[in-house]
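[job 0412] stage=complex_fold ligand=adenosine-5'-diphosphate status=START
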Amino acid sequence: MIPEIPTLITYPNVVSKLFTDKELFDRELRVYHLVPPHVPDLLSAGETEIMGQKLYYISAKRIKGQAYLDQPNFSAQELGGALAAFHAFTFKAGKCLCHIDNQPQNILLAGSKYYFIDFSDSRYDFPEVDITHLLLFWVEEYPFVDFISHAGSLLNRYQEDITLNRDRWSISLKQSITRFDERRAKYNKAFKRAEDSSRNRDWLSAVI
Ligand SMILES: Nc1ncnc2c1ncn2[C@@H]1O[C@H](COP(=O)(O)OP(=O)(O)O)[C@@H](O)[C@H]1O
Ligand SMILES: [Mg+2]
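[job 0412] stage=complex_fold status=DONE, emitting structure tokens
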């Protein structure tokens, strides 16, 4: 029997992530090598062998925080600023490095600082792809009034730095909804849509 190898080893100040898939490792490491804002410091990365199995590892500074959405008084405006800074860092001809897998557990809030982690799905794409997907988590989280207040704050702050495009927004939102719903169906079969989900989605489709 092959012993189970954890994919994450947490130390007091360091988190080491182990990969068996070199493609995922390369994609994640590429982001750390760019050194964008709001990403933990890379400490070391490479190849190793554990119990006869070849593995790749990335060790980054451990962020002493939690998923932002678990901290009810997080600032949508500041998260909008963090995401704009992350996108602006690589922005060129309408595209930028997008996180893609921007579920709440992959955005940590420590004090008042936001950090993006887990880049194995990242790719260059339109920023609208990232933002629509991030906001779909809020669609399911908030009643309508809170949703428009939070989403509006994020979008206003984001657009101080990067202007979103209406056509790309519509296309990206449709794609993000498909991706979001497929993921929920796959990982969370008991998932029940929030009461204001449709209303929130309608607002999102018309806002840009
Ligand atoms: N640098 C870090 N600092 C603090 N916590 C981290 C860090 N990296 C990962 N984690 C924690 O470990 C979890 C899983 O790591 P992640 O890189 O998202 O891997 P996975 O691909 O398994 O989702 C994260 O949701 C977060 O709670
Ligand atoms: Mg993750």
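The pocket of magnesium ion (ligand 2) is lined by residues 105-106, 118 (CB under 6 Å).
[job 0412] exit 0
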